[in-house]
């Protein structure tokens, strides 16, 4: 193995981007700019290569039937799936079942104030919809993608949730409860879950219905080298929500409840995220009640580490009586 590849191996044993460059430059006795030029020349005909990430992609030639290529091309939208090569790679990821998260965290501690009088007796996650509790639709989504370890953050009437689901075995899940002695917001439960968050995981709200391809979202998240990826859904009138302002797939900020004509897009936060364990470093140490939307995401956006994944599947917010009734009428369930 020559000096170049020795340096490359050493560099990729290190996690920090700057250290990767420093090690290679020291080993080769060249400047950073010279190293990048060498790297580009060495690989430009053989690989798609990112010195800042962990992806090495060898170019290959495939011979496929025209009908099959036509089906592949239909998946290209120029945003989530950029080109034919991207589409083929995503299909292979799905076929091989490559690297889906194994853990999901569901935020189920809210009081459901806007669903009173129903929630005077029943915690919001257990409010029925199509013959099962609202939260169980999210559990079904997780199970469809092989996610069977669930952290359930509970607060208001949490004992009823524990009584209903127990350890989760009846639903083919392994449920661990995170008990909030007082409201912790949408990010505070991450501190309670710290010991379990050692790899990429999914976090979502308990009171929303989502039909989303988690494999596609995971692939997008990893390709983006994101710390946090937010599933974005489209609404006709975004004035009641936080609206995403995007630059490409990067989220620059959320504009809270803009006038319809002033909204930067029709894409809103759907309440489902794919997160890396590094997100824990962004939690304020001096606060217990933490909002991931207000305390964490703006910092990640400024650092260019927050991405948006638009999806076209159904989404319903059941947080008010009116929206709950709409979901009962229109929710079609999770596509198999």
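^ Assign residues to that structure.
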């Amino acid at each position: 193995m020559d000096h170049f590849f020795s340096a490359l191996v050493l560099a990729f044993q290190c996690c920090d981007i700057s250290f990767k460059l420093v090690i290679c430059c020291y080993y080769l006795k060249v400047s950073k700019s010279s190293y990048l030029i060498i790297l580009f020349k060495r690989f430009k005909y053989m690989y798609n290569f990112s010195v800042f990430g962990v992806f090495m992609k060898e170019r290959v030639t495939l011979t496929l039937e025209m009908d099959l290529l036509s089906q592949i091309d239909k998946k290209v939208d120029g945003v989530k799936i950029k080109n034919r090569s991207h589409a083929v790679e995503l299909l292979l990821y799905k076929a091989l079942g490559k690297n889906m998260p194994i853990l999901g965290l569901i935020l189920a501690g809210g009081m459901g104030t806007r669903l009173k009088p129903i929630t005077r007796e029943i915690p919001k996650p257990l409010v029925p919809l199509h013959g099962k509790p609202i939260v169980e639709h999210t559990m079904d989504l997780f199970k469809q993608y092989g996610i069977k370890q669930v952290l359930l953050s509970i607060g208001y009437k949490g004992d009823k949730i524990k009584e209903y689901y127990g350890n989760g075995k009846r639903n083919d899940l392994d449920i661990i409860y995170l008990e909030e002695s007082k409201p912790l917001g949408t990010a505070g439960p991450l501190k309670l879950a710290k010991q379990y968050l050692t790899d990429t995981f999914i976090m979502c709200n308990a009171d929303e219905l989502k039909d989303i391809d988690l494999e596609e979202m995971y692939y997008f998240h990893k390709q983006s080298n994101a710390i946090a990826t937010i599933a974005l859904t489209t609404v006709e009138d975004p004035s009641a929500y936080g609206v995403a302002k995007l630059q490409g797939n990067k989220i620059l900020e959320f504009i809270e409840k803009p006038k319809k004509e002033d909204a930067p897009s029709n894409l809103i936060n759907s309440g489902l995220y794919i997160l890396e364990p590094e997100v824990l470093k962004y939690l304020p140490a001096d606060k217990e009640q933490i909002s991931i939307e207000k305390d964490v995401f703006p910092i990640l956006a400024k650092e260019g580490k927050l991405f948006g994944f638009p999806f076209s599947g159904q989404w319903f917010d059941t947080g008010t009586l009116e929206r709950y009734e709409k979901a009962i009428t229109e929710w079609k369930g999770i596509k198999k």
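Confidence is low (pLDDT under 50) at residues 9-21, 35-54.
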